[in-house]
Structures are given as structure tokens and as C-alpha cells.
Write a structure and sequence with these properties.
about 0% strand; Tetracycline Repressor, domain 2; mainly alpha
Length: about 300
């Protein structure tokens, strides 16, 4: 007999399967970009929320595609807050087919929401094609035959989606102009790259067993750690530059409270073959924490 408690347990499993924390991060980046520009008179509050919905649905759909594609490898994963997948399919709470079906449904809803934006607000005809491109790239990261995660360029593609396409879409919606906010996108790109590399460390043994050929596998531990550290410190340097030039407020400089953690994480990652999973997981969380702090500070700075 199916009980309400069982249904609630299953529902929580499907929510976890979509990994909504990443969709929330996308939402915050979108809103931060939206707040940095003056909105044109023809914008619509209804279309605004349709645009927000389409962005979040693209993220959710991409996560579901990733869960569907990686579930066999996730059997071997030792999950952390940011890495290792949701673990819902390997435990039997959801089937691979249901994850794929839900991913298709969320993709369709994303396209419908984007279509509403294009017809509700004049001069926004590119919103739907950009959402469609975002969907294709997010699915291509995991799904064969492309599977960018196995090419070594998957991480830069995801970083571009996060740091450039998301803010540009928000600005395009608000102003009808296709422009890049470099002070927002460049630091986000390098911090995103650092985070994407770092979350592969706790999972590296599971990824190898699953046959994944990501950037960590291709570069090796030490060179990947060096690239992660380089991306982190370029991100910090860009924050300094944009603060000094007045493009960002001094508040964003608070991201430097994460600098010691990022430095320590880079050190641990560079020596990670001598460390256990727990140390790699902590280092990964430290770099991810730096990105989260940066996103929140950019949002607050844009709102002030």
C-alpha cells in the first residue's frame, strides 16, 4: 500500500535528482546581471518571471541529463555537497528513464517560457534561440554522442554558459541590447572554472572506473591543480582591477576572505594523491564556497 509518507519520500528524491542548488545559483547570477542595467520602458514583469523560469529550467534539465548519463558511474561515487551526483538513481528511488523523461519535460517548459518572453516583449526575438543553445550545450555536456565532459572542453563550455550566457540573457531581456558585462562575467568565468575542476577531485576514482575523460583525467592531478589555482587567482586579480576602475563596488572585495581557503585547497589538490577522499572533498568545498560568496556579493553590489 502506497502511503503519503512514501509519496513524500519519492517526491523529495526527485527534487534531489534535479539538484536545485545549482539552479538557485543560476537564478542569482541572472538577477545580479538584471540589476546592473537600466530596464527599457517596454519590459514586462510577467515576462521577467517567464525568463527567470526558463533559465532555471535549463539548469534543471541539464542536471537531469547529467544524472541520466552518469548514474552508472555514480554507483562508485562518494558524494559531497557539490560533487558525485545526487545518488538518487543508484539507490533505486528513481529510474534512469524517469530522469530522462523529466529532463525532456523541463527542457520543453524552458523553451515554452522563452517563447512567451519573445512574444510578450518587443525586440526580444533572440531570447528563445539563446535558451535553445543553452539547452543544447547543457545536454551536450553529458549526453552522447557529443558528451563534452569526455573531451576536456566540457568545463570551459559550462563556465561560459554560467558566466557569459546567463548574464547576457538577463541584460538582453532588460534592455533589448546584446552586451556583455565584463566586470561580472570575467571573474565569474575564472571562479567557475576553478570550481568545476575542484569538484572533480573527490570523484576522480569513480570517474576513472566509469570511463570519464574529463579535464582532471587529461591533465593529471598536479597540472589540473595548477590550472585550478591559476583560475582562482586570475579571478581575484580581476575583482581587484574592476574595483579599482570603479566597475565594481568595494563590497565585492569581501570575496578576499575566501583567499586563504582557496590557497589551502590548491595546495591540498596538488598533493591529493597522498590524501584521502575527505581532504579532497573539503578542498573542493572551499573553492566552491569562494564562487558562492562571489555570486552573493555581486548580487548585493548590483542591488545597492
Amino acid at each position: 500500500m502506497v502511503t503519503w509518507g512514501y509519496l513524500g519520500w519519492q517526491l523529495r528524491g526527485y527534487v534531489q535528482l534535479m539538484r536545485p542548488k545549482f539552479a538557485i545559483a543560476s537564478l542569482l547570477i541572472y538577477l545580479a546581471a538584471l540589476l546592473t542595467v537600466d530596464k527599457s520602458p517596454d519590459w514586462s514583469s510577467y515576462a521577467l518571471w517567464a525568463g527567470v523560469a526558463s533559465v532555471m529550467l535549463v539548469q534543471l534539465s541539464g542536471q537531469l541529463a547529467n544524472e541520466y548519463s552518469d548514474w552508472k558511474g555514480d554507483i562508485f561515487s562518494r558524494r559531497t555537497f557539490f560533487a558525485g551526483g545526487s545518488g538518487i538513481i543508484p539507490t533505486g528511488r528513481a529510474s534512469p528513464g524517469s530522469a530522462l523523461a523529466l529532463g525532456i519535460v523541463t527542457a520543453a517548459l524552458a523553451l515554452w517560457s522563452a517563447y512567451y518572453v519573445t512574444i510578450a516583449v518587443d525586440g526580444r526575438g533572440l531570447f528563445l534561440p539563446i535558451i535553445a543553445i543553452g539547452l543544447v550545450l547543457s545536454w551536450s555536456y553529458s549526453i552522447r554522442p557529443v558528451r563534452l565532459a569526455n573531451t576536456g572542453i566540457g568545463e570551459p563550455v559550462v563556465a561560459v554558459l554560467t558566466a557569459f550566457i546567463l548574464p547576457t540573457m538577463a541584460i538582453y531581456y532588460a534592455t533589448s541590447l546584446m552586451q556583455v558585462q565584463w566586470e561580472l562575467s570575467l571573474p565569474l568565468f575564472f571562479f567557475s572554472m576553478a570550481m568545476l575542476i575542484s569538484v572533480e577531485y573527490p570523484d576522480r576514482h569513480a570517474d576513472i572506473r566509469a570511463g570519464k575523460r574529463n579535464i582532471l583525467y587529461r591533465l593529471g592531478i598536479r597540472r589540473a591543480a595548477g590550472l585550478q589555482a591559476l583560475c582562482s587567482f586570475i579571478g581575484f586579480a580581476l575583482v581587484v582591477y574592476f574595483i579599482l576602475t570603479g566597475s565594481l563596488g568595494w563590497l565585492v572585495g569581501l570575496v578576499f576572505i575566501t583567499l586563504p581557503f582557496v590557497w589551502a585547497a590548491a595546495t591540498v589538490m596538488g598533493m591529493s594523491k597522498y590524501y584521502e577522499h575527505e581532504q579532497a572533498a573539503i578542498a573542493s568545498a572551499a573553492v566552491s564556497f569562494a564562487l558562492v560568496v562571489l555570486i552573493l556579493l555581486l548580487l548585493v553590489d548590483a542591488a545597492l
